[in-house]
């Protein structure tokens, strides 16, 4: 063996006359001319991750540090079982012997840190993950800066090292508009195919004092199911006049090409919204839940307002004082009660009077004991006050149940409103109390229900919805005269419709066979039949179809009327067409209220710099993406 020359290549080879042996793979390399080019070529081809020179620090951190090196790092059993892994570990030991570490240099990394090269994900797979990431940000109200969070980046790297997170700007400026456009086209294509669409609309102001208006669409799809989409929720900078609102709604409807498919619009009782419907020449339906809330608030103001104000004071006392709130929790535990936070009454929040009173009654003993302990006599309630609270809460309970039931988006609700109003009035008549305040409350609620809902059946949209609901039909009316009016107007609607295209198989009338011999025997009979056929009466046909429908057995109250109609759409083809225009109307504008609740979580003080365009696109994705 000859001594090593000055080149660092000889740290990796042993020289034997005109040949050299690789210290790693024991390969014999010829070098008859004395040049070391063959040796370097061998190292670059067979051992590309072995540093050729002592000062070479090239190292790509592409594999986990779970692979062992000489310094004692852990080696997984899977790596040990891999033959190539073991070979590379041995090579790492050989390099350590050739280039021993000193106190002035960091220890050499294991070779396994350089052999697992990570492949990039296919473009389509990466795009799918990007879209899902955007949906998560929009639907779960995360900021775009989430992709820059160090811990989130590490989390994603552990899940899939091949995936590269998009930047914050890529998400907001490229991916969000693209996903919004795709969803917009999907919603538009589905709406264009529908026969009738109902709208709900409302306005809202964010924490940044920015005005927004929302418009939602509701319809019955081809499978007989109720569907809802958000059409737009965008910044509204103009004055909230009927003309400006009508122009905004018209622009949205034109974008979706559905301006001639609208059967009604449901809004609150604001005068500008009613005027908007008149300008647009769309029939207006007042939100049942808004009206019911106004009935309750007016009745409270005229009857039990004094007691309710005392209750608000107690809740406010515990809300403002952390010490009092802690004492209340301790007292609830001592008395074996569930730890419950008190709820405050808010005028704009439906059912909040009932929620406040119910929570006070459930925590009565703990509240009384805590107030006595804290010597807060100014907040104390008398025995009669607690009884008034209990009885008032029981009076409000049916109103709470009705509001909760009527606020559903996925079920038919308009036809139930008049029935519910009558049931509420009937239950109030059976209520009794010895307290004048509670008696006054009952009277005010009854008068309010009659004033706001007494003539509701006179609205053609509502009366037709009741009549076409297989759960109610004639029994849904409280007045026979209103039922007869609804019956006659529905007959006229049926007469105006052309023959439905989905009536099912039609009988083909056979042509009369020509007779070789002419006989006068049948002439009078044939003329009579021909005359009767020419006098086909559409009104009679409409009456027959409607009467046949009304003679059907009633559907149970908990049944699905849309599923019932789906199985009979060929039996009552014209009634089915009218049903699509009536039963798609929701009883409330709750869908818009829910949109604003979502937007309120999206637009916060910490994310007040979101542009109006991004807000509109994000809430559209939030509401419509599956």
Counting helices, strands and paired strands, the structural category is: alpha/beta
Distance between the termini: 74 Å
Mean pLDDT: 83
> How do the strands line up in the largest sheet?
6-5-4-7-8
The helix fraction, in percent, is 40-55%
State the helix count.
24
Taking Cα atoms only, what radius of gyration do you get, to the nearest Å? 39 Å
Q: Characterize the main sheet.
A: 5 strands, mixed
Uncertain residue segments: 57-104, 500-511
Strand % is: 5-15%
Notable traits:
five-stranded mixed beta sheet, about 625 residues, alpha/beta, about 50% helix, three-stranded antiparallel beta sheet, flat, 24 helices
Please explain how this structure is put together.
With 626 residues, this protein is an alpha/beta fold. Among the domains are: 1-48, no CATH class; 64-117, no CATH class; 123-176, no CATH class; 184-288 and 608-618, Nucleotidyltransferase, domain 5 (2-Layer Sandwich); 291-408, no CATH class. It is built from 24 helices and eight strands. The protein has helices spanning 37-46, 77-81, 83-98, 123-139, 150-159, 168-192, 242-256, 271-280, 288-301, 305-320, 322-334, 352-362, 364-373, 383-406, 417-430, 436-453, 460-468, 480-496, 523-534, 538-550, 561-566, 573-582, 590-602, 612-624; strands at residues 13-16, 19-22, 28-30, 197-205, 211-220, 226-235, 262-267, 284-286. The strands form two sheets. A five-stranded mixed beta sheet has the order 6-5-4-7-8, with helices on both faces. Helix 10 (305-320) packs across helix 12 (352-362). It is flat, with a radius of gyration of 39 Å. The two termini are 74 Å apart. The model is unreliable at 57-104 and 500-511 (pLDDT under 50).
């Amino acid at each position: 063996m000859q001594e090593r020359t000055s080149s660092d290549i000889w740290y990796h080879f042993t020289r034997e006359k005109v040949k050299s042996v690789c210290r790693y793979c024991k390969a014999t390399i010829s070098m008859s001319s004395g040049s070391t080019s063959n040796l370097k070529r061998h190292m670059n081809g067979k051992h590309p991750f072995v540093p050729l020179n002592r000062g070479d620090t090239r190292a790509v951190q592409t594999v986990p540090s779970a692979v062992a090196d000489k310094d004692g790092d852990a080696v997984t059993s899977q790596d040990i079982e891999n033959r190539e892994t073991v070979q590379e570990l041995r090579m790492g030991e050989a390099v350590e012997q050739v280039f021993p570490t000193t106190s002035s240099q960091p220890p050499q990394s294991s070779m396994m840190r350089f052999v697992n090269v990570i492949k990039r994900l296919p473009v389509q797979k990466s795009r799918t993950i990007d879209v899902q990431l955007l949906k998560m940000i929009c639907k779960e109200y995360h900021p775009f800066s989430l992709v820059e969070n160090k811990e989130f980046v590490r989390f994603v790297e552990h899940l899939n090292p091949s995936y590269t997170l998009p930047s914050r700007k890529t998400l907001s400026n490229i991916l969000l508009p693209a996903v919004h456009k795709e969803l917009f086209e999907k919603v538009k294509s589905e709406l264009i195919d529908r026969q009738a669409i109902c709208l709900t609309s409302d306005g809202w102001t964010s924490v940044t004092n920015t005005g927004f208006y929302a418009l939602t669409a509701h319809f019955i799809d081809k499978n007989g199911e109720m569907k809802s989409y958000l059409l737009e929720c965008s910044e509204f900078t103009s004055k909230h006049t009927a003309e400006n609102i009508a122009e905004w709604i018209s622009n949205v409807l034109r974008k979706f090409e559905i301006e001639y498919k609208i059967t009604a619009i449901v809004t609150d009782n604001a005068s500008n919204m009613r005027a908007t419907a008149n300008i647009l020449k769309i029939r207006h339906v007042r939100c049942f839940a808004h009206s019911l809330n106004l009935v309750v608030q007016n009745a409270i103001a005229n009857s039990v307002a004094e007691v309710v104000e005392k209750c608000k004071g107690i809740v406010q006392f515990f809300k403002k004082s952390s010490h009092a709130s802690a004492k209340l929790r301790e007292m609830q535990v001592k008395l074996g009660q569930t730890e419950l936070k008190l709820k405050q009454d808010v005028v704009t929040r439906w059912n909040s009077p009932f929620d406040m009173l119910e929570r006070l009654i459930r925590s009565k003993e703990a509240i009384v004991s805590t107030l006595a302990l804290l010597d807060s006599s100014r907040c104390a309630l008398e025995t009669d006050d607690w009884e008034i609270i209990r009885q008032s809460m029981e009076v409000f309970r049916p109103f709470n149940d009705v509001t909760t039931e009527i606020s559903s988006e996925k079920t038919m609700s308009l036809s139930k409103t008049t029935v519910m109003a009558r049931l509420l009035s009937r239950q109030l008549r059976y209520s009794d109390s010895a307290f004048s305040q509670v008696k006054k409350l009952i009277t005010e609620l009854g008068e309010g229900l009659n004033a706001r809902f007494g003539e509701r059946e006179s609205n053609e949209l509502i009366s037709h919805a009741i009549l076409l609901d297989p759960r109610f039909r004639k029994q849904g009316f409280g007045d026979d005269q209103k039922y007869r009016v609804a019956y006659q107007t529905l007959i006229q609607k049926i007469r105006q419709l052309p023959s439905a295209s989905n009536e099912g198989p039609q009988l083909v009338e056979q042509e009369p066979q020509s007779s070789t011999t002419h006989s006068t025997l049948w002439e009078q009979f044939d003329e009579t039949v021909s005359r009767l056929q020419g006098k086909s009466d559409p009104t009679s046909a409409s009456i027959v179809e409607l009467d046949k429908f009304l003679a059907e057995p009633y559907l149970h109250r908990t049944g699905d009327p849309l599923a019932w109609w789906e199985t009979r759409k060929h039996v009552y083809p014209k009634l089915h067409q009218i049903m699509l225009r009536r039963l798609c109307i929701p009883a409330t504008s709750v869908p818009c209220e829910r949109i604003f609740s979502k937007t309120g979580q999206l637009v916060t003080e910490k994310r007040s710099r979101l542009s109006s365009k991004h807000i509109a696109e994000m809430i559209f994705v939030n509401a419509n993406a599956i």
